[in-house]
Each structure stands twice: as structure tokens, then as C-alpha cells.
Amino acid sequence: MRSAVILAEDMELAKKVEKAIPDGLLSIIVARGELERTLRTVPVDIVIMEVSGPRDLELLELCRSMASSCIMLGIRPREEFWEPDYKLFKLCDFVLKEPLSMSEISGVVEKALEKRRLVQQVQVLDLLQGPHPQNSPLRDLSTISYIMKEFSRFLSTGFDLARLTEIFLDEVWQLLSPGKIILLLKDLSSPIYRLHSYRGISGPHIEKIELKEGEGLPLWLSLEGRILHHDEVSSDPLSLEARRDMELLQSIVVVPLIAKGSLVGILGLGRRVTGPLYTREELETLFTLGGHVAAAIQDIQLHRQIEYQKAYIERILSGMSSGVVNIDRREVVTFFNRRAGEILGKEASEILGKDLRHLPSPLGDMLYETLQGGRSYRKRTVELLPERKPLEVSTYPLKDGEEIVGSVMLLDDVSDRVKLEEERIRSERLDLLHRVVGWIAHEVKNPLVSVQTFVELLPERYDDPEFREKFQDVMTREVRRLNDLVEKLVALTEGVSYKFCRGDITPVLEGLVKELKEKTDHKIDLSLKGLPPVVRHDPAQLSKVFRYILDYVLAEVPAGSPVSISVSSGEEVVVHISSPFLKLFPEQAVKLFDPFQKGALLDLGLCASRKILEDHGGSISVETRLKGVRFIVKLPASPEEDSDGETSNIGS
Fold first, then answer.
1. Do 313 and 327 fall into the same domain?
2. Burial letters for 498-527: b for 16+ Cβ neighbours within 10 Å, e otherwise?
3. Fewest CB atoms within 10 Å of the CB: 76, 182, 368, 388?
4. How far apart are CA 496 and CA 650, in angstroms?
5. What is the pTM of this model?
6. Average pLDDT, whole number, for the chain?
7. CA–CA dist 28, 41 (Å, integer)
8. Which residues contact 442 (CB under 8 A, 6 or more apart)?
9. Is 21 in a helix, a strand, or coil?
10. Per the domain annotation, does 137 fall within a domain?
């Protein structure tokens, strides 16, 4: 079992690192005073240390002197009060900076373990390999060990691809002394291996060299996964194409740089400057070293891709028309874009890196709820005090797998939208008021004109019996018309006092039909189906419902046209009122119950009918058919008899 020592003054950071360490690795959290004793008594593979000042560099030097082959991982705090010098990067194999996620720590520890295995392989090589002849280009084992260790330490000092490959070629040059050397790396955005660096090669074609993935040399190396010698190439087409590519690279040996089964790069070597061929041991060492280099290159490329995506996303978020605020698991604000500052009236420097409590209420509370419980808000409207500025807020949890590692908030200032909505409502109300007042004035004016005319003539023609009789008829008709109008308005606005009773509604319909037949020449037919339609109803108000409907129908059909009324009774009582001569388009039917359409008085009657029916627990609808129009009135059946009347006041 491998072991890791964790040294950090911040106990929360130490626990976080311990939690992120992969299974199978023994972790030991120690204090500063216990470090030396721990290094003397425990075989340590990895040392993870929080480095926040020069004093910590002394501890790093102590670790390096006591356990020279262990892997050192330094963690720098977010806020530093000193500028780290080169010693930090020289002593540490890995240098990270807060804030760190669990996955970042875990990934770096895995890489440190891999590096530790590489160092151990070098140590084993020192023990097993015997001395080489003086004339061999291969250096003595101490030199090889030094080269490997120095290069191994470099693999994790940063994410500088150019520096990594430069050191790699230097070590290969020092180790094998090739006359020519060339390195091609896989392009991230296309299936092409492009020239990255070279030495000792001349020719105008060098800068234009490109090898396509899935063809020639790259395909051969991917399939075989081993070193290719120029002299061992067979006569099959793929091998011949690979040999042509080697000649293009001016190489007699090609080493594949493979990481996780993927061909990351191609290293080509020309003939050695001293003449002798490369030995098997030299090439095996180079192949092993190339595998670690390929892993490092792959990590650097992935890091670059992530950094690019991160910068790209941040540019998008910074330019968004919505405010964006992000907090991490420590409840610290890690992102605060320009628009968020404009909405909240704060500078980014006032919020970034600060506790979420620096955000105005209730924004901080909402972010905290999302972080702790995973609760998301969707376009929640809140008021920002003290100005009572209306904001539309949405929050979302940020997850690393199943673990919530932060939360993000989107802010929109909806002050202008609220003002526009208020203005729209006010405008609609004014428009409605104008229409209502205009409609009432129009409906009242006509009767009043008749009344005024007769009142003005009354003193002069009072002795005329014919005039008095006509005056009485006109006054009676116009007053009834005004009274009907008032009753409909009352039914729509203030509501009426109902006197409910349970009983057969047939007498209501029969009385209404008889009355209308005496006043009009229309053919009105009433038919009953099934049991008597017993309903809990107010006879007077229900009579108005059917009167208003029939008034509309009789006014819209030609004189003498038939109008039928049918009543059926079951779980509910259904009354159909129809005429084959009533014409109505579907779009007109939708607006039929709007009191402010044309034919206002009659439309108002239909609206009053619907209101009264709803107070009875019923409904009304209209159905357009090929032949005419049918009104459908539904009332809940109430078969139980009730001897006592019921009174109910129902408002609008």
C-alpha cells in the first residue's frame, strides 16, 4: 500500500484533500512539528503540503533531503502575501492553487502516483543494469538515472507544452546522440499529426510535414504499438507507405508516443552521430520514457482545451444581457459579470472572492438554498430593497457527478417590463371604461330622447286623449327597456338575491313561450323528453335566462321563422334552443358572450344569462351547425323535492 502525508494549517483543506485521495492510498495528516519524525518512520510516496510563505519552503527542503524520491505536491492559497520564487517550483513536482475541486485533487494525486512508479522504475534500472563499455554512447547508470529523474520531475512542473518537448528532445539527444530528431504531435482539432519540433534536419519541406491519422506511418504505429526500424519494414502496402513516411522524416527509427491506447505523437530518430546502431536497451528505455511524455502531452492538451473552453464560456457570460453570479462550495462568490454589477449597483471587486453574504437580500439566501439543498428557482420575481427594484431570478445547482459543488444565479432587471405592464393594464382599464360608459350612454340615450320629447309636448297636448294614450304606451315601453338594461347590468356586476327552490322548470319555459307567442309571429315549439326536469333554481331569474336567449334568437332570424326548444333530463338537465335560420360564423360564436361587441343590448343579455346560469351551477354554450345555430344550456339535476324555499345572495 502506498502512503501520502498531508500537511496543512487549514484543517478544512486537509480534510478535503484526504477525502479526494483515491482508494488504496494511505493518507496521514500531520502537524508541522511531526513532519520530520513521520518521514523517518513511515515510507512516504507523496507529500502534499500547503505552501503559504517562505517558512514552508524550508519544510519542503527538509522533505526533499529526507525523502528525495518521494513526489512533492504544493498547494498555494487563493490569497498570497508573498511572491513565490523559483524554489517552490524546483522543490515541488506539482504546484496547484486554490480553489480546487475534488476531481482536480484526485486527478493530480493519480498523476503523482504514476510519476512515483516511474521514479521507482529508474531506481530498479540502477540496481539491475551493469556497466557499459567506455566506447558505448550510452552513459553510465548514474548519468541515466540523473537524466530520468530530472526529466521526471519536469513532467509536472507546469502546463508548458513547448518547454516539455524541448526538455524531452534535449534528454533524448543527450541519452542517444542522434544526428537528426523530429517530433510530430496529434492536432486536437483535426486528424493530422503536425510538425512540432526538430533538430539536425534540413530541407524546404520540413515545415510543411503533415501525416494523416489512419494512413501510412500513424496507422502502422497505432496498430502495432511498437518501435519501427527502417530496415525491418516488410513489403506489404501499409509497411511500404510507413517506410516512405520515415524517409520523409529522415528517420531510421520511429518511436510511438502512446497514452491510454492513443497515439499522441511520433518521435523520429536519424542515424547516431558516432555511427553505431541504437541498442535494444536504449530503445526500450526511450519507449518507456516516451509513454510518460505522451501522458504529459495529453494532459497538457486537455488542460489547454479546458482553459480555452473556460475562457470562452466566461466571455459569453460576461457579455450576457442577464446578470450572472456563481458561488462555490465554500459559499464564496467566484463569478460576477458586468451586468450583475449594473443591476445590483456594485463593483466586481466588492463581491468577487467574498462570502455570499455580501450579496443583497434575498439573493444570497436563494443561492445558499440551491447550494445546500439543490433547490432551483425558475424566474422567481423578487424585490431588491430599499428601492424595491423588481428582479427576475433563476438559480441552478452546479454538480460534480452527484455532489453539488456550487450554484449559479441569473438576474434580470424587469423594472421596465413591470412599468410597461402597469401602463398596459391602465390603458386597458381606461379603454374598457370608455367602452362601458359609451355603451351605457348609447343604450340609455334612445329611451330618454323619447321620454324627453313626450314630456316637452305634454303641457301643450295634455287635453288630447289620443296623445295621452300614446304617451302612456311610449313611457311604459321605454321605462321597461331601461329597467331591463339595469337588471342585466346588476346581474353582471353586483349580483342578485336568489330565491332557490327545487322543482320542475317546465312551467318556466311554458309561461315564457306563451308570452312570446302573443307578442311575435315566430313559430316557437317546446318539446320535453324523459322525466320532468327537476332543478334547484330561482324561477324568476331562470326565466330571464331563457328570455334573454330567445330575445337574441328572435331578433336575428326573419319574421315567422321557426324556433325550437327541447328539454331532456338525466344526470343533468339540458335545454337546446335553436333555429335553422340563425346564421353565425365560428369566430362570431367565440365573441358572442362579450358584451361590447355589436348588438350590445342583446349581447349584454347573453352575458347576463351566462352569469345567472353560473350562479345556478350551470353553463351555456353555442354550437354552429350546417343548418342554423343551437344554444346549449346545462343545469345540474336535483330530483329531491324541497318544500321550503332557499334564499341566497350571490355577487358577481
1. no
2. bebbbbbbeebbeebbeebeeeeebebebe
3. 388
4. 6
5. 0.40
6. 81
7. 12
8. 600
9. coil
10. no
Q: Are residues 465 and 509 in the same domain?
A: no
Q: Is the peptide bond before 558 cis (omega within 30 degrees of 0)?
A: no
Please name the residues in contact with 114: beta carbons below 8 A apart, sequence gap of 6 or more. Answer: 292, 295
**CB–CB of 181/200 below 8 Å?**
yes
What is the pLDDT confidence band of residue 612, given thresholds at 50, 70 and 90? confident
Shared-domain flag, residues 206 and 337: no
Residue 262, strand partner residues: 259
Grid coordinates representing 642 are 324541497
Do the beta carbons of residue 617 and residue 602 sit within 8 Å? no
Angle at 354 between CA 351 and CA 359, to 5 degrees: 55
468-472: long-range contacts (C-beta < 8 A, 24 or more apart)? none
Report how many helices (DSSP H) and strands (DSSP E) the chain contains, helices first: 19, 24
CATH of the domain at 510: 3.30.565.10
The angle that helices 465-492 and 415-461 make with each other, rounded to 10 degrees, is: 160
Look up residue 355 and give its DSSP letter.
B
CATH of the domain at 341: 3.30.450.20
Same domain, 209 and 84: no
Domain assignment present for residue 307? The answer is: yes
Shared domain for 263 and 404, answered yes or no, is no
Given the DSSP bridges, would you call strands 46-50 and 228-229 parallel, antiparallel or unpaired? unpaired
The residue among 348, 382, 413 that closes a domain is: 413
Name the grid cell of 520: 311575435
The boundaries of the domain holding residue 364 are: 322-413
Q: Could you tell me what percentage of the chain is helix, strand and coil, using 3-state DSSP and rounding each to the nearest 5?
A: 50, 25, 25
- Residue 138 clears pLDDT 60, i.e. is over it: no
The C-alpha cell of 162 is what?
Answer: 513547448
Answer for the pair 198, 182: CB distance below 8 angstroms, yes or no: yes
Domain count within the chain: 5
Q: What gap in Å lies between CA 370 and CA 393, rounded to an integer?
A: 12
Task: Say if residue 292 is in the same domain as residue 373.
Answer: no
Helix (H, G, I), strand (E, B) or coil at 519: helix
* Residue 384: pLDDT over 60: yes
In whole angstroms, give the CA distance from residue 545 to residue 549. 6
What are residue 420's phi and psi, to 5 degrees?
-65, -40
* Cα–Cα dist 574/593, whole Å: 19
Q: What integer pLDDT is reported at residue 137 of this predicted model?
A: 45
| Whether residue 476 is found in the same domain as residue 605 | no
* Segment 164-168 long-range contacts (CB within 8 Å, at least 24 positions apart): 164/293, 164/296, 164/297, 164/300, 165/196, 165/197, 165/297, 166/197, 168/293
Per-residue pLDDT band for 89 (boundaries 50, 70, 90) equals confident
Q: What is the DSSP string of 171-229?
A: HHHHHH-BS-EEEEEE-SSSSEEEEEEEES--STTGGG-EEETTSHHHHHHHHH-S-EE
306 part of a folded domain: yes
Rounded CA gap, 87 and 59, in Å?
12
